[in-house]
Amino acid sequence: MLEIKNLHARIAEDGTEIIRGLNLTVKAGEVAAIMGPNGSGKSTLSYVLAGREDYEVTEGEILYNGESILEMDPAERAASGIFLAFQYPMEIPGVATMEFLKVAMNAQRKARGEEPLTIPEFLKRVKAAAGTLDMDMAMLKRPLNVGFSGGEKKRAEILQMKLLQPKLCVLDETDSGLDIDALKIVADGVNALRSPDRAIVVITHYQRLLEHIVPDTVHVLYKGQVIKSGDKSLAMELEANGYAGIIEEAA
Amino acid sequence: MNMHAIPQRTSAETALIDAFGERLSLLPGDGEIMVRRDEAIERLKAGLPTKRVESWHYTDLRRLLTAVPQYDGSAKAEVLSPILEGSAVLPVLNGVAATNKLPTLDGVTIQPLAEKLADGSFAAAALDLYGNDDAVGALNTAFVADGYFVDIAAGTELATPLELQNVQAGGQTHVRFPVRIGKGARVTVLERQAGEGTALASSVSQLLVGDDAEVLWLIEQEQADTATHLAQFKASLGKNAKLTLFVMNTGGKLVRQEIIVDAAGEGSVFTLRGVNLLAGDTHTDVTMVLDHSVPHTTSTEVVRYVITDKAQGVFQGRINVAQKAQKTDAKMACNTLLLSDDGEFSVKPELEIFADDVQCGHGATVTEINHDHLFYLMARGVDEKTARGLLVKAFVAEVIEELEDEALVDALEARIETWFATHG
Amino acid sequence: MPAVQETIDQVRKIDVDQYKYGFETEIEMDKAPKGLNEDIIRLISAKKDEPEWMLEWRLGAFRRWMTLEEPKWARVQYPEIDFQDIHYYAAPKSTPGPTSLDEVDPELLRTYEKLGIPLREQEILAGVQKPAASELEEANDNVYKSGRVAVDAVFDSVSVVTTFKKELAQAGVIFCSISEAIREHPELVKKYLGSVVPTTDNYYATLNSAVFTDGSFVFVPKGVRCPMELSTYFRINEKGTGQFERTLIIAEEGSYVSYLEGCTAPQRDENQLHAAVVELIALDDAEIKYSTVQNWYPGDAEGKGGIYNFVTKRGDCRGDRSKISWTQVETGSAITWKYPSCILRGDDSQGEFYSIAVSNGYQQIDSGTKMIHLGKNTTSRVISKGIAAGFSQNTYRGQISAHRKATNARNFTNCDSLLIGDQCGAHTVPYIEAKNSTAQFEHEATTSKISEDQKFYVMQRGIPEEEAIALIVNGFVKDVIQELPMEFAVEAQKLIGISLEGSVG
């Protein structure tokens, strides 16, 4: 589903190269964990996948279902099924969460040539999804992410993911700032989305989240490259021994 | 300056024009400098600015400047002991540089301005006026007779502060301090404006701050409450230069302190902190114009006023962000405690923004003492007068304590104590 | 991040080419010759069948005007206006006074249909449909319940029709054209006209006093809560005319009225002058809510044409505990010079000003408010949201002052500006004056652009860039939008959306 080949990307403003020849393949139905120390390029990778303009791809290719997405803007990528759950979700003052959900869902439907949702159908879907995440409907009337706690923001991200039904989900440090109860709710939400036609990329610093979202593959990112890949046992090894050993081994 | 025809000159206007005629032959400099002086007096002849001139809206100079004292050559002013012990003092006594007392410092060239104006080595363009409403500049350019030219060499790090001491003895004085600060130099300068008598003082400080230089400049204005003090501080900042300007006004009858700063070098940082303590029947106006001319410059301004008696306070702050000055970060705050029913305060914080990728903001508050705080202190047994005093002092101390130099903080707090002891 | 080049290019194209109200209506007009002198004023007064005192009032203003100079302090630039090159009176020939809609020129009715104004009574009676989207806004309780609006339509200089008069009359509310009020209610007009904005007030107000041709008059008697929204739609149609309307609203003790004003004009390549005066008077415990959606023609993409909008709006909280609230959405006009103000004369009176000003193309807006605190315990609140795009200049200018006797005056002001593109300017010029130690003033202002982080986040959810910007901008102005009556809120949001259409590539 996702194939990244020899990807090089840099910060547009100052030219600092962050991703330096990264290769990664994620198949449909797979949950891939990307781990790495701070500054290894994990978040940059998520931004480059989602098409953030602040980063320039200078070399290599990102294929999604066999086709390059590099020329697509963030909205087009989203409409094609790529979803990024942000590490730090943005606050959008004055825009009610409900309104935002409706605009987003209908924008994606429009891009796919579908009719907009009727209000009752929309409300039904939101209520159902919010219920499974233990979210209060009153919260959804508040401006998006404004004044939300860290846990509420992350839940709102997963709610959006549930409603938009993406094909490729990228979760950037979704566990950061969550207590154990919230972590479980979020992980359950993600696990419920596992399906044979959907790929999930979980970016995380710690193994903790991977106890709840068990990955099929684990990739270690360091200095903008995948330096080691393996199965879930690799995550355990990292937890036990830290990154130093693997970095040395790769060097 | 006023564009409208002035039907009749005020006595102050007449006195200034007459004084120019009398002083002309005594003023140093000729050629280009004389041309500047003539232009300046022409501005004054067109009339002092009234409230119809936007930048003088709250300080109607034509109305407020009721009398102009004569020059008094016989009056004597004494050198004051410096604000900070051990400072190198450059005194100007009753308008004249006291050259017998000049310190010598490595990397610092000091020359009395009268000499420099006379020997032709002073760039006359430095006397040019700022815009068409620059009454302070015009007054000073027309009459400036002395002061110090200070040149601080690149890389100089002064261990001792410089104190520019401008001491009045009544009468008129017009002085100027052109200061060039070389690349990477680090200096602290105290500009002291003090004295006695019914003075009319104009004073202009103009700084060229070199790349990477770091300057702390403190203006301590403690004129007699009969003095008119018209001052201007102008600075242009080089690349990555840092200028912190601290202004403290505790004296004067009619005070206008203008601050004109151009953040002209990328990465430059300007910080303004101000404390204004106003009492009696006085008028104090601090007017700032700050240009962010290039990308990536930063500024913060925090100016506070305490107004008692029949005093009138004015703060005008304008931040201009040029079209190419992307990534400007500018924040301005003005807070005032208006403590008497006869006092007045007017504030005009302006933003003029032509670049889109900026973060600019300003805030202004005019309030009484916070009643909750007052109640809290009184509930702890502090009587009302003491409690009020504590809260007012805390209000200004917050600004002063930002100065990292402990000796300086102590010295300023001592002066504030003195002010409150006299006016509190 | 500087705006991407396409954004800038596209913003240049917005405006104006999309000004959908830019049609002209072919109607026979009755026009005064161009120019301004005492004879023209006599002609206007005669056409309006005015009493002698009104003519004298006008002539007094005209003589005063001849001695005044055009003000130049606002941050707007325009070529000198030739005041002798304007028709000061133009009226559709079907006037005077249709008594029912059937008598109104059908062309006119079509015009209003195009404007989407619910003029026809049956439409109005059917009620304005609550839009479906509002289900999402359950939190917004500010829904106008009745859905009925009484309309006074002013076409060029003349009020052509006023609806719902009978029903309003039953409640004791007078809602008619100012011309009619001068004839039918001279005692009220004499008492209040010019009592808030005197004929000597300022250049444009003085001009208006001399030459105003029509406008609306509202009188709400003691204790009456006006049973429906009152609305006036102003349209400049005829070439080379100025529009000088005069609105006077009086709310007697304990009464309430909500009044809406909408404005449009056809596309023309010359500039047209609009200089209105609005006076509001609120007596003890009365409340007036005045909302404006101003969408005069802004000029074309090169800045050619457009309306010069020089307006004096002032409310007098004359009574204790009275309240006046101004809400404005300004998206049109080449030049806007407008400062709806409140004189807080009564003790415990309240003034509010909520404003959205969107400028684009070569538009120049210099707008804001004055809150003059005179009475005791008076409070005012100012929320201003400016959005500048294209080559426009957008200035907030405001004055907050507390006089000596205004003990416990309170003001809170918040003005935020948003810049789209780097060819435009946003300016904030507040004047804050306290002459009372018990005054508490708080002022805050910010200027920024739409954050790239926000835009990226919204787009990542599949919302295209243009819609993403509209969504964020509508969030930015939310605090003001929710002050508008429901029908206007929807219209205003759409209008903001339209002015941002095509703003990105």
TrEMBL record, chain A:
InterPro entries: AAA+_ATPase, ABC_transporter-like_ATP-bd, FeS-cluster_ATPase_SufC, P-loop_NTPase. Transmembrane segments: none annotated. One of its GO terms (molecular function) is ATP hydrolysis activity. Residues 2-248 form the ABC transporter domain. Keywords: ATP-binding, Nucleotide-binding. The keyword ATP-binding applies. It comes from the Bacteria. The keyword ATP-binding applies. It holds the Pfam family ABC_tran. Belongs to the ABC transporter superfamily. Ycf16 family. This is Fe-S cluster assembly ATPase SufC. It comes from Borborobacter arsenicus. The gene is sufC.
TrEMBL record, chain B:
It comes from the Bacteria. Residues 171-395 form the SUF system FeS cluster assembly SufBD core domain. GO terms for biological process: iron-sulfur cluster assembly. PANTHER family: PROTEIN ABCI7, CHLOROPLASTIC. This is Fe-S cluster assembly protein SufD.
Automatic annotation (TrEMBL), chain C:
SUPFAM superfamilies: Stabilizer of iron transporter SufD. Pfam families: SUFBD_core (PF01458), SufBD_N (PF19295). Residues 165-226 form the SUF system FeS cluster assembly SufBD N-terminal domain. GO terms for biological process: iron-sulfur cluster assembly. Residues 234-476 form the SUF system FeS cluster assembly SufBD core domain. NCBIfam families: PRK11814.1 (NF008773), sufB (TIGR01980). Belongs to the iron-sulfur cluster assembly SufBD family. This is Fe-S cluster assembly protein SufB.
